[in-house]
């Protein structure tokens, strides 16, 4: 049965049907898996390349294609590779190789199973005999007059080329070597094998070929030359050494130079030692060994191809003219370490890798059509233009970062590979420079040094590209990948469309840091008219009692954590100044405040599927000015308080360990409004109990900033609505000093903050929740007009921390 993901199974219930496989000129149909048919469908007809323009190849690789029925190869090639066989072992259908068609088997041999097998005049059967394998034909084989045998490999000993299960009728009347027809004449430049004998052995079931040796090694006067004229394929495994018999040299040969002629491909697999160099004048030369080309230089003519059959390294110097191609197929890592010079261009083909390490001087330019070209720097790419439609990789430089100035040389839609480092000691990327913006957008990828980690990504990212004389756009460079864990966290950003940076990609969870900094700002702004300010207002009012003017001045120090789904820690110094005067039963006043401090934020984000702690820091400055009033309508101890104020909050966001080290300054206006009241009751001589409630509203305006890495950050307008309620116990001493202690609750109803970065919403932060407050303090009268107060406030819950204050109030 036909098995495998690419298998083809033929089955027709009426025991008939037709399959046509047609490969156009220059194309191939390749079967990696089986072709098979049902054993009852013996009348199937299979036609390969039926029309004259079907001159391509149908290739069967490795497996037995167990088909039943009759097959005709009309044109082109049926190629058996890797020891593949065609036809079921019990197949009785016919197999016909028509005039102009070709049946080939590579060095691993191949098999054809059929009833009657006819090789017609004008057909070619090609066999690579370099490994001693053969083409096996099981059936009644007839070789018509004019049929050709093309030997595509070399064997110093007699080798069986074709064998059959039955006696072979007829014989090949045309003999070819690498597609070139051989005659018995004296060796000419298109004949590099001496006389060949074809004879039947094994009772006529086998055709054995015996080659007379390489013309290269001839010793007869004037008969030796080093020209290999190949029209199709030829594999040469014999070692080519200098012919040191000058009398044998003919045709102007020097005894040590190899010349390749013809449109075909010759493969050299031995460790050759010839010293005169290699002239590739036409077609393809394939290197199957590091020393395949001896020790001399290689000269490539226009339209020729140097092909690697394995991951080999050639140290030969190379001279190119016209357009010379170098092919390294998929899966191969090949290299040219010699200097490449000449006026021609170098074209890289094939899906594999080619490394150039010489200080190359060729001037015709470089075209990368497929696969990868790896270099140490631009000096490996000659002096011409560079057209990259596949991959150009710059290998690590011993000195670390290198600047790669393409000027106006670069074009193409391919990928550029650069090196970078993100370690504690080194943070850099190779820098590519262009005179103008590339015509096509360029994808880049980065190979990082050992121990690199995203935590070391610097502020602003890694500068990797610069446009000298023109602007690009946000898509001029794209990120094709990196070797760094967590690469999904990276993106390419630009501030001015001339300089481009590898930076942190947007992650709404990681970007919550912007909402966190807003939460810290809002929490501190709301705290500026929290519980302590009402105590201050009360002190200013007390100073104004009796119709006098009261002045209050104070300072405090706080260290408070605002739990916002993670936390924002704010610490700093607060300064306040109030002026109050009495008018009837109402005392009016003015108050100004200033806060100078710093903050840090921390939250855990999901980054690349893993938890990462995101931290930030900054400086916070806030100031406001307001009007307050307190009304005591009678002597019952009841009072009412109100406050309205406005100001400014300045946030200098310094750094974080994500988001590319973003930095910015945000200036936001602050508005506050609060109303409330309380009741003071004397509970015993020199003892009183005060209860109070305040409803507090704070608003931070929206803001829009562009940070240091070009992000457009828009902060929402943020609102805080809080209810503060508590009680305070006071003990007055005989020396007119007093001590007090109290407890309160502070409930935040709203307090949500958010931000949008480059149009994408970041995760928000939330201050909503309950905070418990404990306070204790003293008031010491220094005179009838001067009082000093000190207090401590402790917070637990949604807000945590401690604030201490020292104040001075004065009557005038």
Biggest sheet, spatial arrangement of strands: 51-52-53-54-55-56-57-60-61-66-67-68
Number of helices: 2
The general outline is elongated
Calculate the mean pLDDT score and round it.
Answer: 90
CATH superfamily of the largest domain: Autotransporter beta-domain
Give the CATH topology of the largest domain. Answer: Lipocalin
SS-derived structural category: mainly beta
CATH classification, class level of the largest domain:
Mainly Beta
- How much of the sequence is in beta strands? over 45%
Give the radius of gyration. Answer: 45 Å
CATH architecture of the largest domain: Beta Barrel
Biggest sheet architecture: 12 strands, antiparallel, barrel
Report the count of strand segments.
68
Defining key terms:
812 residues; mainly beta; Lipocalin; 12-stranded antiparallel beta barrel; 11-stranded mixed sheet; 4% helix
Architecture overview:
By secondary structure, this protein is mainly beta. It has 3 domains: 204 residues; 215 residues; 300 residues, Autotransporter beta-domain (Lipocalin). The protein is built from 2 helices and 68 strands. The strands form 10 sheets. Strands 51-52-53-54-55-56-57-60-61-66-67-68 form a 12-stranded antiparallel β-barrel. Strands 2, 5, 7, 8, 10, 11, 13, 15, 17, 20 and 21 form an 11-stranded mixed sheet that branches. It has a 9-stranded parallel sheet with strand order 23-25-27-29-32-35-37-39-42, with no helix packed on it. The longest helix is centred in the middle third of the chain and has 16 residues.
């Amino acid at each position: 049965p036909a098995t495998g993901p690419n298998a083809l199974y033929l089955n027709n219930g009426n025991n008939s049907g037709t399959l046509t496989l047609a490969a156009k000129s220059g194309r191939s149909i390749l079967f990696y898996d089986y072709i098979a048919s049902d054993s009852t469908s013996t009348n199937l007809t299979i036609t390969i390349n039926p029309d004259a323009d079907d001159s391509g190849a149908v290739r069967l690789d490795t497996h037995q294609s167990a088909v039943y029925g009759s097959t005709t190869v009309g044109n082109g090639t049926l190629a058996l590779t890797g020891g593949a066989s065609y036809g079921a072992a019990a197949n009785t259908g016919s197999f016909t190789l028509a005039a102009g068609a070709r049946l080939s088997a590579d060095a691993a041999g191949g098999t054809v199973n059929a009833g009657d097998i006819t090789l017609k005049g004008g057909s070619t059967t090609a066999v690579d005999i370099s490994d001693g394998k053969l083409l096996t034909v099981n059936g009644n084989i007839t070789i018509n007059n004019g049929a050709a045998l093309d030997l595509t490999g070399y064997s110093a000993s007699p080798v069986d080329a074709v064998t059959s299960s039955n006696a072979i009728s007829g014989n090949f009347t045309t003999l070819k070597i690498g597609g070139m027809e051989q005659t018995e004449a004296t060796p000419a430049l298109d004949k590099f094998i001496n006389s060949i004998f074809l004879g039947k052995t094994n009772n006529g079931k086998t055709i054995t070929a015996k080659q007379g040796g390489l013309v290269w090694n001839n010793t007869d006067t004037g008969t030796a030359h080093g020209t290999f004229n190949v029209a199709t394929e030829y594999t040469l495994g014999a070692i080519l050494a200098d012919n040191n018999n000058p009398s044998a040299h003919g045709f102007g040969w020097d005894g040590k130079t190899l010349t390749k002629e013809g449109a075909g491909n010759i493969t050299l697999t031995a460790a050759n030692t010839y010293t005169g160099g290699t002239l590739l004048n036409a077609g393809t030369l394939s290197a199957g060994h590091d020393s395949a080309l001896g020790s001399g230089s290689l000269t490539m003519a226009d339209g020729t191809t140097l092909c690697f059959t394995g991951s080999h390294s050639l140290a030969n110097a190379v001279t190119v003219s016209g357009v010379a191609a170098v092919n390294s197929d998929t899966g191969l890592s090949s290299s040219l370490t010699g200097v490449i010079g000449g006026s021609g261009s170098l074209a890289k083909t094939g899906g594999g890798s080619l490394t150039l390490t010489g200080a190359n001087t060729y001037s015709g330019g470089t075209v990368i059509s497929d696969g990868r070209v790896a270099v140490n720097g631009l000096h490996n790419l000659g002096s011409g233009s560079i057209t990259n439609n596949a991959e150009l990789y710059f290998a690590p430089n011993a000195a670390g970062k290198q600047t790669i100035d393409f000027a106006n040389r670069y074009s193409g839609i391919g990928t550029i590979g650069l090196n970078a480092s993100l370690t504690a000691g080194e943070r850099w990327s190779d820098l590519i420079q262009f005179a103008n913006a590339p015509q096509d957008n360029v994808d880049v990828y980065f190979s990082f040094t050992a121990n690199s980690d995203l935590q070391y990504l610097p502020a602003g990212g890694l500068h990797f590209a610069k446009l000298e004389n023109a602007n690009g756009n946000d898509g001029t460079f794209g990120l094709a990948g990196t070797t760094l864990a967590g690469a999904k966290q990276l993106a390419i950003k630009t501030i001015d469309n001339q300089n481009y940076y590898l930076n942190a990609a947007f992650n709404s969870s990681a970007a919550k840091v912007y909402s966190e900094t807003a939460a810290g700002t809002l929490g501190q702004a709301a705290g500026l008219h929290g519980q302590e300010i009402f105590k201050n207002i009360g002190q200013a009012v007390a100073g104004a009692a009796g119709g006098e003017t009261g002045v209050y001045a104070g300072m405090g120090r706080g260290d408070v954590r605002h739990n916002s789904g993670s936390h924002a820690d704010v610490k700093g110094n607060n300064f306040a100044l109030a002026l109050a005067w009495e008018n009837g039963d109402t005392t009016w006043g003015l108050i100004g405040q200033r806060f100078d401090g710093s903050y840090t934020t921390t939250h855990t984000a999901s980054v690349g599927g893993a938890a990462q702690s995101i931290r930030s820091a900054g400086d916070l400055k806030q100031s406001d000015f307001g009007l307050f009033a307190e009304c005591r309508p009678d002597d019952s101890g009841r009072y009412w308080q109100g406050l309205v104020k406005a100001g400014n909050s300045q946030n200098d966001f310094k750094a974080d360990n994500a988001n590319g080290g973003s930095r910015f300054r945000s200036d936001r206006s602050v508005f506050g409004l609060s109303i409330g009241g309380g009741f003071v009751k004397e509970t015993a001589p020199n003892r009183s109990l005060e209860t109070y409630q305040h409803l507090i509203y704070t608003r931070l305006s929206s803001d829009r900033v562009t940070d240091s890495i070009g992000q457009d950050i828009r902060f929402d307008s943020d609102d805080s609505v809080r209810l503060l309620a508590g009680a305070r116990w006071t003990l007055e001493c005989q020396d007119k000093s007093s001590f007090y202690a109290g407890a309160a609750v502070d409930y935040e109803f709203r307090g949500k903050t958010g931000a949008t970065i480059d149009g994408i919403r970041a995760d928000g932060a939330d201050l909503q929740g309950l905070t418990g407050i404990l306070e204790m303090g003293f008031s010491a009268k220094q005179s009838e007009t001067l009082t000093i107060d000190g207090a401590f406030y402790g917070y637990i819950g949604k807000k945590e921390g401690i604030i201490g204050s020292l104040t001075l109030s004065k009557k005038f």
